[in-house]
Amino acid sequence: MKIPETMLAANLAAKGVIKLVEKPVPTPGPAEVLIRVEACGVCGGDLKVRDIGLPGQPPFGEPFTIGHEYAGVVVQCGPTVDEFAVGDRVVVEVHKGCGRCHNCIMGEYTACLNFGNKEKGHRANGFTSDGGFAEYALNHINSVVKIPEGISFDQAILITTAGTALYAFDQMGGYIAGDTVVVVGPGPIGLCLVAAAKALGAENVVLVGTRKSRLDVGKQLGADYIVNCSEGEDPVALVKELTGGVGADVVCDAAGAATSLDTCLNLVRPAGDVVMVAMYKKPITADLGKAVKHNVQLHTIRGEGRLNVPRALSLMAQGKLNLDPLLTHSFPLSQIDQAFATFEQRIDNAIKVVVHPQEK
Ligand SMILES: [Zn+2]
Ligand SMILES: [Zn+2]
Predict the structure, then answer these.
(1) SS3 state at 129
(2) According to CATH, what is the number of the domain 163-300?
(3) I need a labelling partner for 182 at 20 to 30 A (CA). Which of 15, 99, 110, 218 fits?
(4) How far, in Å, is the centroid of ligand 1 from the Cα of 68?
């Protein structure tokens, strides 16, 4: 495959400023592959990288390409790589742990103790190292997964979000088959939690939110009940009714709002599980005494760890996880500003906005 010397890439030029630049196409080193990027999704994480700056991120102004939800074709393999071949269709996960710290050795590579330390081998694509809003991207093979037949590049980029949902249930260590699962917050991760819970056999999935358009998408993704709090509907009353007054087995906070964790504690059954998936923007208030008194298990997750991306791909390939309703908009890389504006302002009910770097 012919690889050009330079490529178009979206760099973070300064705090809050994304700029298209022409830059050299990188060459893969040992255990790396070069990917021709076909699709890269815009995510809330990109906004934080652009506007706030996250730990381990290159300082604002240093050349740095953002974008972490991408898929494409392997066009070059570095020395020693026989796990992939030129022409493979692949999708990436964000985190490549250092492979040498306690957490990485134990499989918790999304919480790598050398987070952001490139010299020690850590990489988080589009967060601490160059990402996928570019025509080409370099990846370590540990963060690359082959796309099964029948799944498009656009569908594949949803797998980071779906992998995050599966990791939430994985980290909880419990059962979902037959369970009553409540998801608070119908953002992309919340919607993936709904679809994943159904795929894993949850009996009742309840989605709680305030925006009708998003709740309707949740219904398409398999939610059995939707609760619209802005219309005065009460999730606690519904869950009590569904569970004989006991409460839900699993409650996920995918809202990250000031009172959402407290809501979760009102919904869970004694000794049930609450998983915090959203990032809280500020310190929040929740009556943790309720959790202690009722032996409620509290869990947190970061990212799509412990190989949950390939698991999500498997569910998708089996036809058990259909996330197509999330794919609402697409733009060529030259229109990345419109792509971000559409995502950020939720223009035309945008959920997942995909950038296609090979489209001219
Ligand atoms: Zn993301
Ligand atoms: Zn590590």
Answers:
(1) strand
(2) 3.40.50.720
(3) 110
(4) 6
